[in-house]
Each structure stands twice: as C-alpha cells, then as structure tokens.
Design a protein that fits this description.
With 150 residues, this protein is α+β, with helices and mostly antiparallel strands. It has one domain. The chain is built from three helices and seven strands; from the N terminus they run ααβββαββββ. The strands form two sheets. The protein has a four-stranded antiparallel β-sheet, with helices on one face. A three-stranded antiparallel β-sheet has the order 1-2-3. 25% of the residues are buried.
C-alpha cells in the first residue's frame, strides 16, 4: 500500500506572508478612515446653511403671499417667525430652519447676525454658518459658511 502524505494546515511561511499583507493593507487604509469626524462636522455645517437658506426663502415667500409689507411676523407650520425687511430675523432664523441647540451652538450677535457652530469643532470660529439679516426691504439676507476648522 502506498501512503499518501496530506498537508493538514498552513506552513509558517504562509501565515507570515498573510500577516505581512494584512499589515501593508491596514497601513494604507487606516489613515483614510482615522478622522471622519472632521468630514461629518463639515457636512453638518453645509446642511445647516442649506436649511437656513431654504427657511429664509420660504418665510419670505409667505411674507410676500400675505401681501402685508408692514407685517413683522409670519406663521410657518404653526410657529410664529419674526421678520425683518421681509426675511426672518436673527432671533428666529434657527426656529424657522428647525435648527436646535442640541445639535448646534447658536449665538445671536449684538448687531444683525447669528452664528450657528457645529458642536465639537476643532476651531468653532472656522466651522460655522453666519446669517445676517436683510438690510433693507429690497435686499436679501447674507449667508457665510466656513468649514476650515471643523
């Protein structure tokens, strides 16, 4: 009878090669996934500015539809939104946009602006949306976005 020699496992060289290949792959892949928080905070700020812009335009459209240029507030979905020059005021834009303090740091300025900062940003001053009220009836509010320090 002839005896057949069957290999029952992997050799030490094969195991070492698999470990080396996995090490090389992880060295290239790990930096790509290491800091996803920065990208998430930047996306949060981008989402906030889109929400603020939409809310400002919807409130303005409601203000125009009501036809009362002297009106100082409009009602959107049962919520009274204070208006300045036909657009939401700095005090009510966060409410109009559905932005809450649980998700963002909201600071109403002493002039005519409000800043909405992403929570957990490396540098809050460079990870924010700034909404500035419309200066006159025939002008629009301004929006400034900075995601450099998220």
């Amino acid at each position: 009878m002839k005896k057949i020699n069957k290999q029952a496992g992997f050799t030490l060289i094969e195991l070492i090669m698999v470990i080396v290949i996995l090490g090389v792959l992880s060295a290239f892949a790990l930096p790509r996934f290491a800091d996803l928080g920065q990208n998430a905070r930047a996306a949060t700020v981008e989402g906030a500015v889109a929400s603020v812009k939409s809310a400002a335009n919807i409130a303005h459209a409601q203000w125009l539809a009501e036809g009362d240029a002297a009106s100082l507030e409009v009602t959107l979905e049962g919520v009274d939104i204070a208006m300045v020059n036909g657009y939401p005021s700095k005090d009510s834009i966060d409410e109009a946009a559905g932005i809450i303090a649980d998700d963002y740091d909201i600071t109403v300025g002493t002039t005519n602006d409000v800043t909405i900062d992403a929570k957990g940003a490396t540098t809050a001053a460079t990870c924010r949306v700034t909404y500035t009220e419309a200066a006159a009836v025939n002008s629009s509010p301004t929006f400034a976005v900075d995601t450099g320090g998220c």
